[in-house]
Structure formats: structure tokens, C-alpha cells
Amino acid sequence: MAKQPSPNVLLQRERMRHFLTQSELAEIIGVDTKTVQRWELGLRRPRAYYMRKLCEYFGKTPEALGFPDGPHAVEGDGWTGGHSTAPAPTNDHACRRILTYLLLAGGMVIAIIVAWMILRPSW
């Protein structure tokens, strides 16, 4: 009997921790959205090139991203899955998204305060 694929919750959790959709991660890494979906569903594993890009982007090892056996082998790549010596990239997209959420939430708070000040009963 064939082994059922298990979802890759570590990759999904890391993507969500960076406030990225599957489409956004796919664009950053350079793959199709369906490819990221297959990785997260456990149907496929990234090839070495894309594994390296994932590890460098998130600053994690393949094991920490839910790929204990490392990348899908590709001849001539030679990458073993270790940490990159380059510093982890800043995630401007996540920062912009967090600021947007805070501004929206802050706008709601201000609107509620103004509405309360206008509509409060006279003492």
C-alpha cells in the first residue's frame, strides 16, 4: 500500500509567520503557486535550487522547514542544505503588511473613540 503524504506544517507555519500567502511565497521563490501548495500538502519536495532559496529566505535549515531528508536530488547542484553564510534577508513585505494591519486597527480605534465622544450621553 502506498504511503499517504503528510502535510508540511512547518513550511506552512513559517510562511504564515512571515505573513505571506502561497502566491506571494511562490513569486519570491520563483515557482508556481501550485508548487508551493504541493510542498505544503506533502505531495512534492523542492529541488535543491528551490530548497536553497527557501532556506535562505526564511533563514532556516531544510529540517526546520519540514524536509528532514533534505531537497529532492538534482545532479550537479552540490548543495547539502546547510545554513547560508549570507545574512537572512529582511522581509519588507511582512513589515508592510503588519504596518497596514496596525494602521487599519488604529483607524478603527480612532473611529470608535470619535464615535463614542460624539454619541456619549451628556453627564
Tell me about this structure:
The protein is mainly alpha-helical. The chain folds into two domains: 1-89, 434 Repressor (Amino-terminal Domain), CATH 1.10.260; 90-123. Helices cover 53% and strands 0% of the residues. The chain is built from five helices and no strands. Helix 2 packs across helix 3. The longest helix is centred in the last third of the chain and has 28 residues, at 92-119. It is elongated and about 70 Å long.
Looking at the overall shape, the CATH architecture of the largest domain is Orthogonal Bundle
Helicity level, as a percent range? 40-55%
Query: DSSP helix count?
Result: 5
Number of domains: 2
Topology record:
Elements: H1 9-17, H2 22-29, H3 33-41, H4 48-58, H5 92-119
Helix pairs in contact: 2-3
Could you give a short description of this structure?
With 123 residues, this protein is an all-alpha fold. 53% of the residues lie in helices and 0% in strands.
